[in-house]
Amino acid sequence: MTEQLESGGHRYLEQVARGILCDLIDTWHAAGEPERAAECAKLAVAQGVWQHAAQRPRDLIAGLSAKPLHDPVGFWFTALIEERFPEIRAEILAAVGSVEACLFGEGRWREDECAGLLVTRAVLAQIPEITTFNPGTIAISRFRPGTRVVPQCGATNAILRVYLPISGIEGAWMRVAQEVVRWEEGRCVVLDDSFEREVKHEGTEDFVALVLELVHPDLDPAHRARLLNHRLTPEERIAALMRERGLEAVSYHDGEVTLHPGEEMRQLVFQYMRAAGVSGVEVDGDRVRWWQATTESA
To answer: Which ranges of the sequence are coiled-coil (predicted)?
Structure first.
């Protein structure tokens, strides 16, 4: 029993260490310091936190094959998706317009988002790996010209991602570890979400892709079941978000969201604002605007 407790405690400390190092490495990348980020990753590998400097999940499951890109041919459903690509492409471009959409999450289809995507949904519904047994999402992602997603790693090595480029591939590329992906419309790309990836779009049109998540094929059935059991319903996600943010009520009407903080959050805000001597504050990116009792400053 003592050995089990010590083993569990060690795994917990490793998880904490990975979380701290992930935050530090992400901070260096966000600050435009890739060399320092790389130094941190190499040090973490030397200390046994991760095995690969480019694969840095917070939740590291032992025994799963680790490679940045997987051969799409190894997944039976990629042939089905590519065969139906002309219909899928036409539907997505007609129905989604200039926005992004999450079609599937928490184990269920999002009916409003799927309106007008009957063929796409019917095709994907034939693939249990990305529906019934998917703890993640199915989404339509859009990258505007000039977009850059700084290097980052997914939270776990238990998830793979499938990208199906829909349109606007000219000038768009993605780096996964040391491998650069050049998109082809209608051709699937399968990657390990736990490896560092960077996305950049240097083209002139929006780059649109259908993104599917699925469980790593090496994951044992027991762990797969735990992932599926932890899927939250939309109601559970809202409640969890409110508890995390200290909110007691949330309402939505005519496109406007109203938040009501709980007593603890109200007291905290009151104390901070009284200490700062302000009556209001507004944050817009890097810009902060403060309101005094009778004056406004920026």
So the answer is: none
User: In 3D, which of 136, 177, 146, 215 has the Cα closest to residue 50?
Assistant: 177
Of the candidates 188, 175, 185, which has an alpha carbon nearest to the alpha carbon of residue 148? 175
Q: Please name the amino acid found at residue 66.
A: A
Report, as an integer, the average pLDDT of 154-166: 95
Domain ranges, residue 11: 2-46
**pTM of the prediction?**
0.75
Residues 204 and 278 in one domain: no
* Contact predicate 196/177, CB 8 Å: yes
Residues near 38 by Cβ (< 8 Å), separated by ≥ 6? 53
**Mean pLDDT, rounded, for 251-279:** 85
Q: Go through 90-115 and write b for each residue having 16 or more CB atoms within 10 A of its CB, e for each that does not.
A: ebbeebbeeeebebbbbeebbeebbe
Angle, CA of 284, 288 and 293, to the nearest 5°: 125
